[in-house]
Amino acid sequence: MEFSRADFEDAVSDALDLVPADLTAVMDNVVVLVEDDAPASDPELLGLYEGVPLTERDLSWAAGALPDRITIFRNPTLAICETREDVVDEVAITVVHEIAHHFGIDDERLHELGWD
């Protein structure tokens, strides 16, 4: 399926726009990126949160802290999707999943909530 990098970045941006403003307002020091490929250690990974969840930060955290990173991986996402609508839906799910990690929600709890 053809889905350009620009189209994929637009899908990520659109997914971020769907996140309620009251949640994005409390997201702190986080950047959302798009990469073509997942790490070689997990090539089927759709998204990755790297950072310190809000629930684990203390007063010493902010001293020189780099932004947390949410990375959405284009090629693994395209590999599991059959249509453009599938891509848009999967990107939205992945963005929410990774944002949840920023808020300290782990994979087990996301599974219980139906976000896997």
Automatic annotation (TrEMBL):
Instruction: Tell me the superkingdom of the source.
Output: Bacteria
Q: Does the keyword Nuclease apply?
A: no
Write the protein's name: Putative Zn-dependent protease with MMP-like domain
Q: Which Gene3D superfamilies match?
A: 3.30.2010.20
SUPFAM superfamilies documented for this protein:
Metalloproteases ('zincins'), catalytic domain
Keyword tags: Hydrolase, Protease
Species the sequence originates in: Xylanimonas ulmi
Biological process terms from the Gene Ontology for this record are: proteolysis
Q: Name one GO molecular function term.
A: peptidase activity
Task: Cite the Pfam families for this sequence.
Answer: Zincin_1 (PF06262)
